[in-house]
Amino acid sequence: MSKVAVLGAGAWGTALAKVLADKQNPTFLWSHSADLALLINERRVNERYLPSAPLPPTLRATGDIEQALSGAELVVFVVPSHAMREVVARARPYLPQRALLCSATKGIENDSLMLMSEVLIDELGRDVEPRLSYLSGPSFAKEVAAGQPTAVVVAGKSNDETVAVQHAFATERLRVYQSDDVVGVEVGGALKNVVAIAAGAVDGLGFGHNARAGVITRGLAEIARIAMVKGGSPLTLAGLSGLGDLVLTCTGELSRNRTVGYEMGRGRTLDDVLSHLGHVAEGVKTAKSAYDLGVKLDVDLPITSEVYRVLYEQKTPLQAVVDLMNRSLRKE
Ligand SMILES: NC(=O)C1=CN([C@@H]2O[C@H](COP(=O)(O)OP(=O)(O)OC[C@H]3O[C@@H](n4cnc5c(N)ncnc54)[C@H](O)[C@@H]3O)[C@@H](O)[C@H]2O)C=CC1
Ligand SMILES: O=C(CO)COP(=O)(O)O
């Protein structure tokens, strides 16, 4: 069994660390809060972020990133996307030379408009690319931790390394597919969160199943457009990290992004919703990045643009729906 380091002790980091530790890998779960690490070790559960999942003795939390990384053969980055650059820089001096590096974060960095793969390469250098992979797909942390059947995908440029990560995560309950389309998998995982906010808003406004299905399908078209411009394959977006994650997040009540949209559709303000959420909703920041990316790359992203206006320009969700419905008619 090999030592694993999971950087980020939120819901998803804790669930993935539990999967790896349940497979008898000595697993270190790093939290930037030393107090949270102490509490996790003491209570054998992450009460703050994943209270439903008892943690095995093979999992140890730590606030010391050097301790987490020393001798690790697999390093999983699962911090919110806005913290990725800072955490990668903090990890850099201690990363073992040959460790496999996998990101399970979904987002696009504000201002630089970089995908997480681009942030990692920016911080660590192009040489690490063969060791990098990206895990995405429809996977609520709570269900994965409970051993509910789940399918995800790991994408990487180098076949052997990606297969190694696929096998590291795979269990009888967690089926892991492999892909070489890093851009498609990452764009799908990041942008579905923005579409989930739109789908939640439509539900919060009291519209029906037709509206939600329309948002999912036209949202998928937007995601595929931007993925293709960045060099990804539209076929990837018909898979787990596109359609799969859209279906989950646009319909599942466990989704934090859908919740943000739903509550705003019911009339609450963004600040109010976020102050009570207790977790990250990546779609909020990614809406801004995606909107800017659409302008920069000249890609038409109508749903994303309306989500951006609702989140950042005080447009009402109802007006956003009216404007989307009254755009000029076009071919599908
Ligand atoms: N929760 C889920 O079901 C899934 C989440 N993801 C993705 O995983 C990523 C992490 O999400 P969650 O674990 O759910 O978030 P969470 O909101 O449950 O926890 C966030 C974690 O990040 C830590 N954090 C915040 N700022 C930090 C910083 N500056 N440096 C280091 N750590 C910091 C927090 O202390 C906390 O431990 C996101 O990109 C999310 O989209 C992906 C699939 C499933
Ligand atoms: O990415 C997720 C499931 O695949 C989690 O979605 P939320 O962040 O909206 O909860």
UniProtKB/TrEMBL annotation:
Binding residues annotated for sn-glycerol 3-phosphate, in chain numbering: K106, G137, S139, K192, D245, S255, R256, N257
Reactions it catalyzes: sn-glycerol 3-phosphate + NAD(+) = dihydroxyacetone phosphate + NADH + H(+); sn-glycerol 3-phosphate + NADP(+) = dihydroxyacetone phosphate + NADPH + H(+)
Binding-site list for NADPH: W12, H32, Y49, K106, A141, R256, V280, E282
Pathway in which the depicted protein is active: Membrane lipid metabolism; glycerophospholipid metabolism
Record GO terms (molecular function): glycerol-3-phosphate dehydrogenase [NAD(P)+] activity
Primary residence: cytoplasm
Domain Glycerol-3-phosphate dehydrogenase NAD-dependent C-terminal: 181-321
Gene3D superfamilies linked: N-(1-d-carboxylethyl)-l-norvaline Dehydrogenase, domain 2, NAD(P)-binding Rossmann-like Domain
Keywords: Cytoplasm, Lipid biosynthesis, Lipid metabolism, NAD, NADP, Nucleotide-binding, Oxidoreductase, Phospholipid biosynthesis, Phospholipid metabolism
The UniProt record lists the keyword Ribosomal protein: no
Residues covered by the Glycerol-3-phosphate dehydrogenase NAD-dependent N-terminal domain: 3-159
This enzyme's EC code(s): 1.1.1.94
Recorded family membership: Belongs to the NAD-dependent glycerol-3-phosphate dehydrogenase family.
Role of this protein: Catalyzes the reduction of the glycolytic intermediate dihydroxyacetone phosphate (DHAP) to sn-glycerol 3-phosphate (G3P), the key precursor for phospholipid synthesis.
NCBIfam families documented for this protein: PRK00094.1-2 (NF000940), PRK00094.1-4 (NF000942)
PANTHER family named among the record's database cross-references: GLYCEROL-3-PHOSPHATE DEHYDROGENASE (PTHR11728), GLYCEROL-3-PHOSPHATE DEHYDROGENASE [NAD(+)] 2, CHLOROPLASTIC (PTHR11728:SF1)
Name of protein: Glycerol-3-phosphate dehydrogenase [NAD(P)+]
Organism encoding this protein: Polyangium sorediatum
Source taxonomy: Bacteria, Pseudomonadati, Myxococcota, Polyangia, Polyangiales
Gene: gpsA
